């Protein structure tokens, strides 16, 4: 990869200026191959933003995809390349699609400007570029970019929060229930087995009573960690409620599921939980109820019900055991 030319022309990241502190200073990639042009524009922009200049459009696209830019400023009158084509490519690539583009056109290029707006250029300037107009338009695009990033992060966080159990980081019951039916349908469609287990910590109430609720929470977290370590990527684990967890295992028959459940049960009983930064060693056992999809089209709720009945028997028969 070719080094960017920003340093060659003496444009560097500005000191933290008032504008940068206010959060509007962005990272700008200026795609321009005429020294007379970028040697004037880059220093203007550098007063408020971090500016890189790239005269080569192919390189520019590469940098735009890798460089975490807030704004592309593209000269439409490049010597050896169509600036519009660059804009169009930036709009079609996944990694550059969301970066705002500010086009700079020669004044007689009206048709091309319209074409640019159709392609998805966000705003434009015509030469000769007015300093304050350049700054104002760049600032607006950077601000908008920051705002949409912020919105997107918020949406992603809310989605995460809605499907995750806050204590253990496993999926929550809602997520599990919205995916169970699909997993069952996929299994039926591909004639693959599907196993489901419900795990319940034995006498968890006494753990709370003996060590306190916070230690109880630590036990739940540690249990979740051990579950995570013992399942495959295609398995789905969730905290179903309180101290009860569900693991769904696609492409797993009863024989294999029993082995997985038994191994997990033994590993929990065999290695006391280290809680309170190792201060406490708490012995934990679990009971597991196991069931598999019996026939195509069977409602997954029936499988869940059978696993629950099996769990009840495991408890009734003395706990610390797997019942299918
Ligand atoms: P069993 O062997 O029959 O399962 O007995 P148990 O004590 O584990 O079952 P029970 O359902 O009587 O008690 C479950 C306890 O789990 C009661 C409840 O206070 C506790 N619990 C539920 N959610 C949490 C939690 O998020 N944190 C902690 N620390 N305790 C919880
Ligand atoms: Mg119970
Ligand atoms: Mg319990
Ligand atoms: Mg329970």
Explain the layout of strands and helices.
Elements: H1 18-21, E1 27-31, H2 35-46, E2 50-54, H3 57-66, E3 71-75, H4 83-92, E4 101-105, H5 110-119, E5 123-126, H6 131-163, E6 171-172, H7 173-189, E7 194-201, H8 204-211, H9 213-230, E8 236-241, E9 244-250, H10 254-270, E10 273-275, E11 280-282, E12 286-292, H11 300-316, E13 322-323
Parallel strand pairs: 1-2, 1-3, 3-4, 4-5, 6-8, 12-13
Antiparallel strand pairs: 7-9, 7-12, 8-9, 10-11
Helix pairs in contact: 3-4, 4-5, 8-9
3'-deoxy-guanosine-5'-triphosphate binds next to strand 7, helix 8 and helix 9.
What does this structure look like?
- The chain has 324 residues and is of the alpha/beta class.
- 48% of the residues lie in helices and 19% in strands.
- Helix 3 runs parallel beside helix 4, helix 4 (83-92) runs parallel beside helix 5 (110-119) and helix 8 (204-211) packs across helix 9.
- The protein is elongated and about 85 Å long.
- Bound molecules: 3'-deoxy-guanosine-5'-triphosphate (GH3) and magnesium ion (3 copies).
- 3'-deoxy-guanosine-5'-triphosphate binds next to strand 7, helix 8 and helix 9.
């Amino acid at each position: 990869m070719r080094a960017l030319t920003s340093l060659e022309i003496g444009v560097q990241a500005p000191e933290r200026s008032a504008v940068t502190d206010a959060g509007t200073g962005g990272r700008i990639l200026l795609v321009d191959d005429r020294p007379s042009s970028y040697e004037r524009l880059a220093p203007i922009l550098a007063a408020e933003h971090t500016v890189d200049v790239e005269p080569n459009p192919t390189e520019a696209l590469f940098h735009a995809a890798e460089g975490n830019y807030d704004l592309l400023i593209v000269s439409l009158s490049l010597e050896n390349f169509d600036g519009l084509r660059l804009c169009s490519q930036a709009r079609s690539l996944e990694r550059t699609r969301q970066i705002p583009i500010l086009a700079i056109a020669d004044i007689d290029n009206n048709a091309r400007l319209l074409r640019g707006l159709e392609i998805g250029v966000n705003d434009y300037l015509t030469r000769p570029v007015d300093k304050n107009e350049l700054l104002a338009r760049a600032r607006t695009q950077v601000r908008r970019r920051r705002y949409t990033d912020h919105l997107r992060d918020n949406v992603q966080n809310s989605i995460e929060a809605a499907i995750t159990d806050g204590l253990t980081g496993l999926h929550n019951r809602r997520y599990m229930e919205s995916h169970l039916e699909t997993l069952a349908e996929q299994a039926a469609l591909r004639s693959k087995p599907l196993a489901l287990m419900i795990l319940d910590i034995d006498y968890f109430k006494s753990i709370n009573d003996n060590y306190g609720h916070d230690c109880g929470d630590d036990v739940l977290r540690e249990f979740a960690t051990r579950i995570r370590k013992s399942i495959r990527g295609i398995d789905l684990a969730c905290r179903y409620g309180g101290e009860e967890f569900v693991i769904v295992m696609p492409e797993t028959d009863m024989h294999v599921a029993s082995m997985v459940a038994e191994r997990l049960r033994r590993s929990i009983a065999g290695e006391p939980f280290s809680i309170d930064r190792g201060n406490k060693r708490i012995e934990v056992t679990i009971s597991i109820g196991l069931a598999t999809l019996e026939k195509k089209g069977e409602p997954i709720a029936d499988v869940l019900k059978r696993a629950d009945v099996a769990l009840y028997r495991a408890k009734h028969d003395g706990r610390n055991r797997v019942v299918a």
